[in-house]
Amino acid sequence: MVSSKARHWLVTGLLLCSIVLPAQAEKADRFQKMEVESDQPGKVDLQNQIVVFNGNVVVSKGTMSIRAGRIEVRETPDGYHHATALGAPGALATFRQKREGVDEYIEGEAEKLEYDSKADTIRFTGKASVKRLRGKTVADEVSGAQITYDNTAELFTVAGGASAVTPGNPTGRVRAVLSPRQDSPAAAEAASAVPPGARR
């Protein structure tokens, strides 16, 4: 029989490695044009293929959107985009994207977001939190110092540390809250176990 302390460290170790959530984004988003707009004047450097915008920046690419205080977008020689977004003072940068074929969205926030269109990944760094929403209901949630979302592999990787410390997480540990897969026997059983007054 495994002690509760051993179970705790086993779970913590597993969370430090990776968490697989069903989270494939709209496939067509990867090939859409990237649009950037902001409140303040921006800089477009055609020679070096760099775009820098500040002030309530909104980046959109199909169903994907990033909102930040500042964003820098670089185009690689092979035509892909790498975007780095920073939150505004007192606010985090945010990300939202629809999942393929279902009424679900991936939403996340962090002090810094890094989007790589070639690898089809987004890295959330500093007070990072990512949620999968079924409609408006949170199905799964992951938080930590750094979260990497690999859309192609449908994989989240999360790590803890000092930059994960928030009022709700004073220890900076990684955390995941996972719901049963929708329309599964486990989800039906969980729904029937909820008292009627507690349902939303």
UniProtKB/TrEMBL annotation:
Q: Where is the signal peptide?
A: 1-25
Is Transport tagged as a keyword? yes
Q: Which UniProt keywords apply?
A: Periplasm, Signal, Transport
Domain of life of the native organism: Bacteria
What Gene3D superfamilies does the annotation carry?
Answer: Lipopolysaccharide (LPS) transport protein A like domain
Sorted alphabetically, which Pfam families does this protein's record hold? Answer: LptD_N
Region: Disordered; residue ranges are 180-200
Query: Compositional bias (Low complexity) at which positions?
Result: 185-200
Domain named Organic solvent tolerance-like N-terminal: residues: 35-153
Q: Where is it located?
A: Periplasm
InterPro entries assigned to the protein according to its UniProt record, in alphabetical order: LPS_export_LptA, LptA, OstA-like_N
Q: Which family does it belong to?
A: Belongs to the LptA family.
Q: What does this protein do?
A: Involved in the assembly of lipopolysaccharide (LPS). Required for the translocation of LPS from the inner membrane to the outer membrane.
Quaternary data: Component of the lipopolysaccharide transport and assembly complex.
The name this protein carries in UniProt is Lipopolysaccharide export system protein LptA
Q: Which organism is it from?
A: Piscinibacter gummiphilus
